[in-house]
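Entry 12.
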Amino acid sequence: MSYIYPAFVVILITTVYTTFLAFNLIPQVKAVNGDSDGQYFYTPSEPELYGVLVSFHVMFGMLITCFILASTSSPGYIPRETSADRKRWVDGDFEIKDEDDNRVKEIIQDTKADLNNSRVIAWLKSIVILERKKQYGYYRHCSACNLYKPDRTHHCRICDRCILRMDHHCPWIRNCVGHRNYKTFLLLLFYAIACLGFILGGMARRLVYAFRPIMDTTVFLLEDLLVLIVYLLCLFLFIALCMFFTFHMNLTLNNMTTIELREKKNNTDPFIVHRFNVAHAKFDNGYWNNFIQIFGPPWMWLLPIFPGGDGTYLGTSVKKSSEIESKTQI
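Predicted 3D structure (tokens):
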């Protein structure tokens, strides 16, 4: 049953692409070559036509690539490869000083704590594990995976695994959207919107032509009606995906996930909201740095290339100590 949604997406993409190809692109090619009167579509110049053909198929190719990668790539799991990883996530030894641990618990329990103080924020960013259980401030532990959870990690009941920086489980790609494939998921939305924009613009005149007086019922049912249905479907998807993409870009710029927004920031319990604000102070680095964290340097913004990072969101103190160790070994 889990394959039904991806199969539906494949059928939908195939239907829309075939309709656009058969009733817009191919007739335009024939019109440019003088093989058709081109009365129901815009007849561009030859350079413009082949520019559109190449541009559309590049974006369509990126759409298919992102769909495959988002569906098959790992969303990111709790690492256990090194001894340091096993020490943290299996044994729960985070080497946090007792005074720091007690201070974290105090800040979490104090809803009036000053989270705008730059020194407090810098200190929060240095803590290895900041997110704690609601009661008593204990470390979060997954009983299903038998592992301690890094910050922003959640257990997916469908995948039955803990996902790093889990955003949500998407049935349309039959995969979780997490740390390692979130960028690919966003690019999937972006290229879907771009392709739909091309189709809506390219088939506009063909849509108008579909409202001419019906002279042949067969042509109307097999061509005009199909064009009308596909065009309205594309218009609906274009609007819906634009709204969905805008929503996720807002999350990206604010360094939030869907789970954090729905279950924590917008929670009616002020204590849960406060715990989110404490954790978010560690993750939020400003709009630009938050964007770069997901998309990487400018040259890879539109490419489905993972920008890096292990997704555990360890504190800056751990990063500094690891850098010192690596320099010492060199």
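Annotation: The longest helix spans residues 217-253. The longest strand covers residues 154-156.
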